[in-house]
Amino acid sequence: MVLEIKNGIYWVGVIDWEIRDFHGYGTPYGSTYNSYLIKDKKNVLIDTAKDYMFNELIYGISKLIDPKDLDYIVVNHVEKDHSGCVDKLVEISNATIITNEKGKEHLSLYYDTKDWDFVIVDTGDEISIGDRTLKFIRTPMLHWPDNMLTYCEEEKILFSNDAFGQHIASSERFDYEIGEGIFEHAKDYFANILMPYKMLIPDAIKAVKSLDIELICPSHGVIWREYINEIIEKYNDWATNKTKNKAVIVYDTMYNSTKKMAHAIAEGLMEKGVEVKIYRISETSLSRIMTEILDAKYVLIGSPTVNRNLYPEVGKFLAYMDCIRPLDKIGVAFGSYGWMECATEKIKNIFENLGFKIVDDECLTVRFAPKEEDLKKCCEFGKRLADIDL
């Protein structure tokens, strides 16, 4: 599939309908690898695709030009979902790579680049490709050191790399074709890809807002046209830790003791008007849980103690959460145990590492199975928790 998004500028990307895991991030809706071709005095390709989709990519390019006639390949980011076809395209076309110093370094670590031609750019640099000019903006650590954005001034298009992306495979190419449901996909992407670096995003947003933009073309998902202002504001909200009066309760269980505690605490929170989401880790993707945690005020994690340690699924989730690093939350650890309680202390250690405000209570650990009075105490705790602020 090839689509002209503006006069002489084309989407030539590929749709990955089957992918369900993106280096640990669940992608139940698949993904796209968006590549854009600009036909001008110089033919420019912006981003490529994973290597196993090279045939699909080259098929789309070939509908518009002979791939041998590529003059430039802009590498906004070297991760293999962006650069996986670069080496084969250079071999075919001998195109010059436009990237930054870190991008060149990273490409040399992936590929044999000794015979490649490079143009190295930095923030504010411009390259004329004929009737159009490409301008570059460095965005290091969003989410690799090499990341940058490319802006086409004349067409008012921002090729935004991983920013504003979504992992969704669809026949639709624009935001308005999907409607407001696209924001949930964008939120899921932000929570699992960009959250660890969100403190850097407000400055990037300032740079984006200074541009006159009619299209935002990310490397994954649909192109933003109708909801540009809305997605920029949502990014600002997510990056600045705006939270809802919402609690996310995450647990796993051996014999349902921890499950009963989770539901009792949830009952108390709901009675006080708090929005509650409950997830059993072994039955829910980690990325789905992190999306809900993004704008939650309270994070409650429950685990039984197993051999003086966490339940394995809970340990897996904590490792993932520690990697994604949500900030500014109220944390609660709870769980059941047999002869020795160890799990909640390990959960609280992660909370401390993330800088959570930890709320503790003697009712949050129960030996063996919780009795009716234990569950009442958990419910009362939930009510008290609803009155605690960050």
Percent helix range = 25-40%
Number of helices: 13
Structural domain tally: 2
CATH class annotation of the largest domain: Alpha Beta
Q: What about the largest sheet? A: 7 strands, mixed
Radius of gyration: 24 Å
Q: First CA to last CA: what distance?
A: 49 Å
CATH topology of the largest domain: Metallo-beta-lactamase, Chain A
Q: Name the poorly predicted regions.
A: none
Strand content range = 15-25%
Q: Looking across the biggest beta sheet, what order are the strands in?
A: 1-2-7-8-9-10-11
Give the overall average pLDDT.
96
Overall geometry comes to elongated
The total beta strand count reads 24
Supply the helix-strand structural class. Answer: alpha/beta
In short:
The chain has 2 domains: 3-239, Metallo-beta-lactamase, Chain A, CATH 3.60.15.10; 246-385, Rossmann fold, CATH 3.40.50. The chain is built from 13 helices and 24 strands.
Note the topology.
Elements (H helix, E strand, L loop, with lengths): L2 E4 L2 E3 L2 E3 L4 E2 L2 E2 L4 E3 L2 E3 L5 E3 L7 H9 L9 E3 L5 H4 L2 H8 L2 E4 L1 H10 L7 E3 L5 E3 L4 E6 L9 E5 L4 E5 L13 H4 L3 H13 L6 H9 L5 E4 L9 H12 L6 E6 L5 H15 L3 E6 L5 H9 L3 E5 L2 E2 L2 E2 L1 H13 L5 E8 L5 H12 L2 E2 L6 E3 L4 H14 L5
Parallel strand pairs: 8-9, 9-10, 10-11, 15-16, 17-18, 17-19, 19-22, 22-23, 22-24
Antiparallel strand pairs: 1-2, 2-7, 3-6, 4-5, 7-8, 12-13, 13-14, 14-15, 20-21
Helix pairs in contact: 6-8, 6-10, 7-8, 9-13
Walk me through the structure.
With 390 residues, the chain is an alpha/beta fold. It folds into two domains: 237 residues, Ribonuclease Z/Hydroxyacylglutathione hydrolase-like (Metallo-beta-lactamase, Chain A); 140 residues, Flavodoxin domain (Rossmann fold), CATH 3.40.50. The protein contains 13 helices and 24 strands. The strands form six sheets. Strands 1-2-7-8-9-10-11 form a seven-stranded mixed beta sheet. Strands 17, 18, 19, 22, 23 and 24 form a six-stranded parallel beta sheet that branches. The longest helix has 15 residues. The protein starts with a strand and ends in a 5-residue tail after the last helix. The mean pLDDT is 96.
